[in-house]
Amino acid sequence: MYSQAATDPMTGTLFDDRYLIDRLIARGGMGNIYKAHDTKRGHIVAVKMLRSEFDDDAVVLKRFLREAHAVQNLHHPNICQLYDIGCTRDKIHYFTMEFLEGDPLDKVLREKRMLQPEIALKYIMDIAAALCDAHNHNIIHRDLKPANIFIVHDADGKETAKLLDFGVAKLQEEMSDPGQKLTNAGSTLGTPFYMAPEQIQGFEVDGRADVYSLGIILWECLFGAPPFLGKNIIEIFSAAVHQKLPKLTRAYRASRKWRSIYAVLDKALKKEPKNRYDSMQSFLRALEQVHQAIVPGQSNHDATQTSSLSLLAIIHTISPLKLILVGSIAILTIGAIVSTICLMIPSHVEIPQTRYGIYKFFSDVPAEIRIDDEYLGTTPYRGELYNVPPFKVTFRSEDDKTYTFDVDNYPEDVAGFAVSFSKSRAVRPMVFAETTPEGADIYVNDHLYPLKTPCQIAVPTSGQTRLTFKLKDYLNENILVLPNNGELKIHTNLYPRETQP
Q1: CATH H-level superfamily of 103-171+193-293
Q2: Any idea which residues carry the catalytic annotation?
Q3: How confident is the model at residue 386 (pLDDT cuts 50, 70, 90)?
Q4: Ramachandran area for residue 16 (φ above 0: left; ψ -120 to 50: alpha; else beta)
Q5: Is the CATH number of domain 14-98 3.10.450.50?
Q6: How far is CA 40 from CA 44, 66, 129, 310, in A?
Q7: Could you say which DSSP state residue 494 is in?
């Protein structure tokens, strides 16, 4: 059921005279989860035990038991089923659940970064259906995130998404009763990236907060990162409350599929609950309509396909004999022109290397930059270099960490380099890309990214990643990024073509 964890003293013991513990499989916020054999029923289960350090914490115990009781009455194929609730003679509180084979969604996203729309929509529809059942029982989840969604693989290879962890769930009747609140901050419990603005601000929440959180997860599945990030919880909360959603690139806006998906996301992620889907059922219906309209195997770039198909249509209207004649004449003409040019250029002429390159340098902490060991400046830095490639660019931080890039050719327009020195703070490497002016297309290793600047980008976990920024009437910028499993912000002022330095 979750990722495997280290060996635990419980391994191999008979817990509560019934459950033979196989191994520790996860550590949650309140308890440990074990794979075990139920000797009474004869099947494999997951056992979640409240950790001993919370034995005397009445608030944590109440939350732990609330999760069990919240799920106990839910019987939906997309919710991890609960079997039994118990307490041992040693006062260890626990409950047992369905044991799942597969991977949590956060692991899937770490490995794949972005999912095909058809797959992402299927996962989110599964979870939306589960939440419809929960909401019908007056249960609001309040802590939706990829780690709480499990992708189960059956024997036929079919995938199903299941919802886990109702530890922060709340009965709607409890929300209207101040005496039922566990703490003053109880209504703001959740995971920062996925919390609705009203939850962040401590207001009462209803099912529309789950709509928002599930919309954020769908966004992350499609684009590789949540839409609102920050270096700390204050920045994350501020972005979620105030920032606008990033926009699709022109190429993606040309696709009916992506326009439909974006329209659903835009409504689900409205800042004001009254402007979102009024219920999870309404959100699910919208997702189903988009999913049904998507043709399997259709490219993300409909506009590009149309151009290619139009060209083929024109070619097919020309007779084969005319094609052969036109092709032959074109080849002879080009050959004559090339021969003439070659005769006009003396073989001994040398073209002087008087070019310069425009370079930019970024890092998450101040770092000095050296070109072939010659000091250039401190990040952030931009300038024109007359160094003739090949040469080396070295970043050196204050604690003497160094990273090196090799430059083998002159940049076509603008070249850049970006390094994250800080220790890993993210589930996976992230780059916040911002340009002045806004609205630049982004290519990640030559593949068009769906969103325009400013936006968050999930990048590969190892090696260098090339980000290319393109905006009409401005120079292209190619920036090599070394994220080192951290988070990095790149803010670059694009150069107008007619006024390049």
Answers
A1: Transferase(Phosphotransferase) domain 1 (1.10.510.10)
A2: 143
A3: confident
A4: left
A5: no
A6: 11, 25, 32, 68
A7: P
